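FAQ
Q: What does a multi-component entry look like?
A: The components come first, one per line:
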Amino acid sequence: MDKKALEALLSEMSLEEKVMQLVQIPGSEYEADAEITGVTRGQADEKVKRLAGSTLGVWGSKRLKKIQENYMKEHPHHIPLMFMLDVIHGHKTVLPCPLGQGATFDPEAVKKGAAMQAKEASSDGVHATFSPMADLCRDARWGRIMESTGEDKYLNSCMATAMVEGYQGEDLKDPEHIAACVKHFAAYGAGEGGRDYNNTELSEHTLREHYLRAYGEAIKKNPAMVMTSFNTINGIPATGNTFLMKKILREEFGFKGVLISDWAAVGEMINHGFAEDQKDAAFKAMMAGVDIDMTSGCYSGYLEELVKSGEISEKMLDEAVLRVLNMKNDLGLFEDPFREIDMEEGASVTEESRKLARKTVAESLVLLENKAQALPLRKERNAFIGPFVNTKRLQSSWAFSGEDENTVTVFEAASEIYESGNIKFAEGCTMMDQDSVTARGVCHMENWQEENEKLLSEALEAAKWADTVILCLGEDSTQSGEATSKASLKLPAVQLKLLDELSKIGKRIVTLIFTGRPLELADVAKLSDAMLVCWLPGTEGGNGVMDVLSGKTSPSGRLPVSFPYTVGQEPLHYDMYSTGRPKPASGPSEYTSRYLDCENGALYPFGYGLSYTTFEYSGASLSKEKMTSGETLTASVKVRNTGDMKGDVTVQLYIRDITGSRVRPIRELAGFKKISLEPGSEEIVSFKISEEMLRFWTAEEKWDSEPGRFNVWLCDSSVDGETLEFRLD
Ligand code: GLC
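Then the predicted structure of the entire assembly, as tokens:
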């Protein structure tokens, strides 16, 4: 439909119809077994159901076609309903959770994964996803760090833009693509105490320098939607925050798409103490420019009254409605409300989608320890032990449209590789301690003690038989995701006991950690000969893990987030400030910025990861020692594969602005390149450094670079590399 026709349609709509285009109701209003991802408010009334502009949490080509047919028949102007769903790391074929995808340092792979998700979701009738989550996350206590790509603004920018491009493709009318939604705007990862729905205290400088960057970069790719976050920023809820939504999002970022609230976030401004009642909440959300109210009922209950009284102008309402109609039009819904989807087939896992998922899993795994080349596994007696060995629950709590039965477990994959006589399996212990709290409630087993005694005894028998124990531990998928903040980052005590008992047998122990967040692993590392972080790897988890354990492919993942010595260090991030008395790398440290009982930095730092081969960096150099703002310089380093296996290596570029009108981080990631090297081969890796890359939010409250000295590192993680220096004049 062309612009004039859309405007003509708008002019024909009643006030009630227009208001309802801004209302999103749960899919359970249309389909009983919809996925409910928030606290529901009871049933919508018939009018709302008949006129609501969009719904969320339902999928399936046949049933969505039936809903759409009934809906459009009832609608006075037959405007199609929009179907939205959280497809954040998979629909039928579930990829590694986003934190694992961040660990690939491979935006191209992530873009392909998003395109695959879009194709599957679209064939199930979905029009829009609530992804990418571009929140910067420095606090492992926050369970939603699992849904992010980590703690670095540059890496998150690369990943969020890749996802928007993958989901949306070149044209939203292409039925194999779906609308993207950049969330949670903004700074949801900075909640006090690492807790959801909480306040964030951020200076404008920190907000702009770190937390807004990835959203801004992703919005340059024209996502159809942005979602408001649940938190307050310096005391003002994002969902009613005109500075954030009008000045930053609309004016500075130039976002012209649909701004949707998070689930019930409009109404929750009452709980925050920012809105008097639902009518006030509706007013404040509209004034901030929120186009769609997700499930709170404030718009459906009070917006028409607000317009009739003149508190909200009909012009403002029309602008919001036109943005929603434009989105439906961009999706081609007016021409084809079913977007050519095959009503009979719907989405399914395919060999092709499995292949992509399997490759992404292998790329996401991060090897943290490999003492005496414990990995890759030898063709000998291998005992696979632990609660993650044979569970099909390898996907996150946000992959609810993917069926567990499609998942390949670690043991199933191992059984494909090793002779049955050469492998044994023992569960070893329960996934969680007795009465553990999860997102789905308290986990309690009647015979928990006896069950674990039995499981331990079987595990010790299997370990005695084996040459190597592959111990699969981790955090249950219901213990990360929304509203799963934790004050401890330790593995369950029952799992640590299993490791401790197994270590007494004296066999080689290769520990795999399945998790949606950084955990405290110092004690685990001491008792393990090798340690591999597997994140929540999804449908092809077992095969991807075994491709690396067997040596078919060398691990290449790098940490997208710091792993601490202890939770007491959180929030923890590599791009910290120097302080007035930086703790020296060695020697006396009294009267410096330090902990008496812990290192300042991470146990395993951002950007770190081992390979089965070794790489040597040499000849790091800069093309010149000085540059002016109109010039660039080239930073280069030679990387050689000095081992006997092919391997991928992610060469990282870090820059430090040594002196600024505001203090600057001790390092900031400014580029990365992942290359493959055969044994004995080498490659020169180069990066161009421009003045634009040196800009920051200065004390004069503007983006600018400042003359002075800069350090550069071309290296293998955020803590190593030869220091180079240049001047900007
Ligand atoms: C949830 C989440 C958000 C999600 C939305 C719809 O509360 O905060 O990330 O997209 O509701 O499910």
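Q: Is there any commentary attached?
A: Sometimes. For this entry: The chain has a mean pLDDT of 97.
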